[in-house]
Design goal:
This protein is of the alpha/beta class. It has one domain (14-141, 177-185): Vaccinia Virus protein VP39 (Rossmann fold, 3-Layer(aba) Sandwich). Helices cover 21% and strands 27% of the residues. It has five helices and seven strands, in the order ββββαβαβαααβ. The protein has helices spanning 71-81, 98-102, 144-148, 151-157, 159-169; strands at 14-17, 28-31, 40-41, 56-62, 82-93, 132-142, 175-185. Strands 3-2-1-4-5-7-6 form a seven-stranded mixed beta sheet. β4, α1 (71-81) and β5 (82-93) form a beta-alpha-beta unit. α4 (151-157) packs across α5 (159-169). The longest helix is centred in the middle third of the chain and has 11 residues, at 71-81. It starts with 13 loop residues before the first strand and ends with a strand. The mean pLDDT is 92.
Length: 187
């Protein structure tokens, strides 16, 4: 999908937020660290980012959202930057993974349900932000032992099992990381 043409035949424009030193090919890299060799340098906690509204078809934030000061405001900024129908991809550690807590720059520890807030029913808390995303997919990666035993398949294949796992089993059958894919909804 990275370099596929958009519906109108033009190339897909992708912003790689927090690209670090591994900017995805064919993207515009945004980072705060000059050593990252990003295309655009900006503090990811200062809004707005230096781009026009609806400037991108896709935003990726790979192991970034856990570092920002304000998750809600950052999601609002992603929403502003991506055209209606465009997509946002987020990857982040699961809160039961050791890496979620061993990095002192992590400010947020998230679950596979953390972004329900931005869905159709706002998880009952729609008064903090008006932006909406449609959840396309949530994929949980488990630690290798649990993956080999088939738990990862169950968690990702059956949403009710994922809820049961998240509520009751995740401190034993530990998560590693999560991948979220959202469609940007605009009025």
């Amino acid at each position: 999908m990275r370099n596929a043409p958009a519906a109108n035949g033009r190339p897909v424009k992708i912003l790689d937020v927090g690209c670090g030193i591994h900017r995805q090919p064919g993207t515009i890299g945004l980072d705060r660290n000059p050593a990252s060799h990003a295309d655009v340098l900006a503090d990811l906690d200062r809004f707005p980012y230096p781009f026009a509204d609806n400037a991108f078809d896709r935003v990726t934030a790979i192991h970034v959202i856990e570092h920002v000061d304000d998750v809600i405001r950052t999601m609002e900024e992603f929403h502003r930057l991506v055209r209606a129908g465009g997509t946002v991809r987020i990857e982040t550690p699961h809160y039961t993974d050791f890496s979620s807590f061993c990095d002192p720059t992590h400010k947020h520890h998230l679950t596979s349900f953390s972004f329900r807030y931005f869905g159709k029913d706002n998880a009952g808390f729609g008064y903090y932000s008006p932006v909406k995303f449609r959840e396309i997919s949530v994929r949980v990666k488990l630690l290798a032992f649990w993956r080999w035993l088939g738990f990862q398949f169950l968690v990702n294949r059956f949403p009710r099992y994922r809820r049961f796992w998240e509520y009751y089993l995740c401190y034993v059958v530990r998560g590693k990381a999560m991948e979220f894919e959202f469609e940007v909804l605009k009025a």
